Q: What sequence folds into this?
């Protein structure tokens, strides 16, 4: 989805939710759940912890929206990403296990997701294996390069947004991406991996 169209889509759904349409938040969360989960998984490297932190992230998102703490001055996903990042930091700082929440606690049905029902088991296995292979390659990158790859390809952030998020110049963000791609190509060649 093009950025401008996606921003309009986000803002319509956010306004609908704030105006009382509870189903609007389900649609919005479904649109970003996999990206947020993948980002968290890249950082914590444990599926259960990533699931839990992803749920906690969206619970905070909903609470913040209900409390009027979201300002429509940027991309919604950038805001969600900051919340997810803070959840991960809190997790590592506290050495705690994430709390498990019910659908009632969350204020939406966490498991009611079309993505869980549509793919066949075989499709899911192939996709999971490819995602795991890519994650393993990305995990081998230096931290600064890995961060830029995740923000760019999993969150569709512009290099300007990446620069703001990471506190570096746009040229530095571009340079990190360039080196990350060079390093990923080398890793793919070394392992003779094929991605369809």
A:
């Amino acid at each position: 989805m093009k950025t401008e169209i996606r921003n309009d889509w986000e803002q319509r759904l956010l306004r609908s939710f704030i105006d009382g349409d509870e189903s609007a938040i389900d649609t919005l969360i479904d649109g970003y759940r996999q990206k947020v989960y993948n980002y968290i998984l890249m950082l914590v490297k444990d599926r259960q912890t990533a699931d839990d932190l992803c749920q906690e992230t969206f619970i905070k998102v909903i609470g913040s929206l209900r409390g009027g703490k979201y300002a429509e001055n940027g991309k919604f996903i950038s805001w969600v990403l900051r919340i997810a990042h803070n959840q991960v930091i809190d997790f590592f700082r506290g050495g705690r296990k994430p709390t498990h929440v019910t659908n009632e606690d969350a204020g939406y049905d966490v498991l009611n997701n079309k993505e869980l029902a549509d793919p066949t088991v075989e499709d899911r296995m192939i996709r999971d294996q490819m995602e795991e292979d890519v994650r393993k390659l990305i995990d081998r990158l230096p931290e600064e390069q890995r961060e830029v790859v995740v923000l760019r390809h999993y969150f569709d952030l512009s290099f300007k947004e990446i620069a703001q998020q990471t506190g570096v110049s746009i040229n530095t963000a571009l340079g990190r991406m360039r080196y990350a791609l060079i390093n990923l190509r080398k890793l793919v060649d070394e392992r003779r991996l094929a991605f369809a």
